[in-house]
Amino acid sequence: MTDRDDQKSDDEGLALSVPDVLPVDEHEEVVSENGERVRRKGVYLLPNLVTTGALFGGFFAIVSAMNDNFANAAMAIFAAQILDGFDGRVARMTNTTSAFGTEYDSLSDMVSFGLAPAIALFSWGLEPLGKFGWAAAFVYVTCAALRLARFNTQTSTEDKRYFTGLASPPAATLMASGVWMGSELDMTPQLSVAAALVTIFVGLMMVSNFRYQSFKGLDDNHRVPFVSMFIVLMVFIVITIDPPKVLFLLAFTYAASGPVGWMWAAWRKRSTKGDPITEGEDQ
Fold it and tell me: Is 253 exposed, middle or buried (0-12, 13-18, 19+ CB in 10 A)?
């Protein structure tokens, strides 16, 4: 009996056993194996468990924010980001990537990096603004959903070195660190308005066409200069000095790098071409 026959027998056994135990239909999807498209039943456990952990981080952040525990909400979002960075790597290392895992990860991102930061920010500083406050939070949620939908449809076409628009994890970092940092301050109308403007800005950056470095080149298994390890170590040391303020500064700098980079490129392009009016006068 071949390996394919063994897999087929396992799938059939799984299909027969699951409905007998639980009243649920078994998941089935088409996958590519050795150049052929075949149907497989079931889901991979390990990478989806990691994704579930990230989803729980987002849920815990929402619950914490509703109870005015903003530090725990922020740390839960950061934990979700760490797990979100591992689920894809685990799937690739164990050769357990699947369409189900991709969609599940996207839904988890929507909760952890779309809903959770918006609810945390609204509970902390946007609620006093009334309709303007929840409108600003909804702008962020909508932009996060649009950003994820666009990413899912462009993954095979865009340059892997760059993201088109601000990715949802660093956007969530900016929101969560801002809430964490702001929770130590006395709430004022000016602070609420500033928080709303930052929320709208981050949301618009997610759906913009500005290019952001993806740093995916760091995923490659190759040697790096020793100084790189030293720089990473120093970054961690600086973060431990004052986590909310340092994380907010780093995330805001990254969020601003998109429009700043675009303006710099436009200025250089114009400088290279020269000013036609000036050139005409010189002639």
Answer: exposed
Q: Do 127 and 133 meet the contact criterion of CB atoms below 8 Å apart?
A: yes
Cβ atoms of residues 74 and 244 within 8 Å: yes
Q: Is the pLDDT of residue 283 over 70?
A: no
The C-alpha atoms of residue 117 and residue 128 are separated, in whole angstroms, by 17
Neighbouring-strand partners of residue 52 = none
Alpha-carbon gap, residue 273 to 83, rounded angstroms:
47
pLDDT attached to residue 120: 96
| Topology of domain 45-269, CATH | Four Helix Bundle (Hemerythrin (Met), subunit A) (1.20.120)
Can you read off the two tokens belonging to residue 179? Answer: 């809430």
Q: What is the C-alpha to C-alpha distance for residues 101 and 31, in angstroms, rounded to an integer? A: 12
Task: Mean pLDDT check: name the lowest of 25-29, 118-122, 204-208.
Answer: 25-29
Residue with tokens 């089935």: 28
β-strands 162-164, 211-213 pairing: antiparallel
Q: Report d(CA 92, CA 84) in Å as an integer.
A: 13
Rounded to whole angstroms, how far apart are CA atoms 268 and 108?
Answer: 40
3-state helix, strand, coil in the chain (%, to 5): 75, 5, 20
| Cβ 195 vs Cβ 121: under 8 Å | yes
